[in-house]
Design brief:
alpha+beta, 6-stranded mixed β-sheet, 12 helices, 18 strands
Length: about 425
């Protein structure tokens, strides 16, 4: 087992929960506290609190709520970073469960337990589309809860409570925190209080790839280019990731798009000029065939190759520096063995020395095997009779180590598959 020895500053989630958000009515909890299962210790990081899983896969039928679980994580991160200066985020992002009249009148709730600088923290909040109703932050330096702060909406005003270990200009922060903003978002921006910065630094290593929310597959390519240009990852690191994934790309260049706009319709040219839209750089890949070099643009590569390029910077960065990477539908455009390869990187001490975490949704069942994953790493999303999302682990079914999990899942033993009418 790759141990932390308690001095390694791991950035990991212990668990994440959400309630009354989109298809999620009752609270669901995604848990990374490893069970007593002895299989695949390479996927475990030991901390002073518990053993943490380095990867978790979430399966389920379409419209079961897998992506909404990812959306909840993304909302959490967006509000923490941006609600201090954007009063419209709640109205844009917070959507309660729709198929229940009582739920539509109740706030949504979000909570995360995580480890930062070898201390466990619990942070959460409740909110609707109009305001924050409650917010809380606790630390567990010695495994016992220490209050840092709570914020509760009572009698048309906020009541704050601060623990002895929360230092800073509390009164000023209370006064400038708007109902649409998280207190911790404000504290990160206007206070140099140590705890606020610890939380901010942790979430700076929390990355979510959700193309459904971004709505633009070009974002992945632009991010890889940006990370290289900013020096967050190197050109050689990305090349190594691609070549180790058995892609035939041996080199690539990033060049400015020098194509002419003369052939564009006048209306489009006017729109580009008016909105000052810059052309995106072009990625030129190089292949060697029979000892001769050949070049293609990235857009001429296969969808799978483009997807691996899109993932490259995030995977390389998180594995190099530690952190949490969340990917919705990891299997999109990728061969099953490429999916297995990416997941496997997070289970090997050589490629994951900082013990980064990978959380992903997928329909790729070939990796659903005890030869590769632990049973507590496999999760299922299903729909209840009232069309709300349920989340549960394969571990709850107590499968034997010799069971064929993929076959059992596709046969319906664990639910979370479509049922067709005869």
């Amino acid at each position: 087992m790759q141990k932390s020895h308690f001095e390694l500053d791991v950035v990991v989630i212990i668990n994440f929960s959400v309630k009354n958000f989109r298809s999620i009515k009752d609270e669901i909890i995604l848990e990374f506290n490893a069970s007593s299962d002895k299989d695949h210790p390479n996927f475990i990081t030991e901390t002073k609190y518990c053993n943490i899983l380095n990867a978790a896969a979430v399966y389920g039928l379409n419209a079961s709520g897998k992506s909404n679980l990812i959306r909840a994580m993304q909302l959490f991160s967006i509000l923490l970073n941006l609600s201090v200066r954007n009063e419209t985020l709640l109205s844009q992002l917070v959507v309660p469960f729709a198929f229940d009249n009582q739920s539509t009148e109740m706030p949504s709730e979000f909570n995360i337990n995580f480890i930062s600088e070898n201390v466990r923290y619990e942070y959460g909040f409740s909110a609707d589309s109009q305001q924050i109703y409650s917010e809380w932050l606790y630390a567990y330096p010695n495994k016992k809860a220490q209050l840092l702060f709570t914020r509760e909406w009572q009698n048309n005003k906020y009541e704050y409570k601060f623990g002895l270990n929360y230092r800073g200009d509390k009164k000023r922060l209370e006064e400038i925190t708007k109902p649409t903003a998280l207190f911790l978002s404000v504290a990160q921006s206007f206070d140099k209080q140590e705890t606020a910065n610890i939380i901010k630094n942790w979430f700076a290593k929390f990355f979510i790839e959700n193309l459904h929310l971004s709505g633009n597959i070009e974002i992945g390519k632009s991010r890889t280019i940006d990370f290289i240009q900013r020096g967050l990852v190197t050109h050689n690191e990305v090349i190594q990731f691609l070549t180790e994934s058995d892609l035939s790309i041996v080199h690539f260049d990033i060049k400015e798009d020098e194509s002419s706009d003369d052939q564009l319709p006048p209306a489009i040219k006017e729109f580009i000029l008016k909105n000052q839209i810059k052309k995106q750089p072009i990625v030129i890949t190089e292949h060697h065939v029979n000892n001769s070099p050949y070049q293609l643009t990235l857009n001429d590569e296969s969808s799978g190759t483009q997807q691996m390029f899109n993932f490259a910077a995030l995977v390389v960065l998180v594995l190099k520096n530690g952190g949490v990477l969340v990917i919705d539908e990891l299997n999109n455009f990728l061969h099953p063995l490429l999916v297995k390869h990416i997941v496997g990187l997070f289970g090997a001490a050589e490629t994951n020395p900082k013990r980064a975490q990978l959380i992903f949704t997928t329909h790729e069942t070939s990796i659903m095997t005890t030869d590769f994953l632990r049973r507590d790493q496999i999760w299922f999303c299903d729909k209840s009779k009232e069309q709300s999302t349920m989340l549960y682990s394969a571990q709850e079914f107590s499968p034997r180590k010799t069971d064929n999990l993929e076959k059992a899942y596709l046969a319906g033993r664990y639910g979370a598959i479509p049922i067709f009418m005869d």
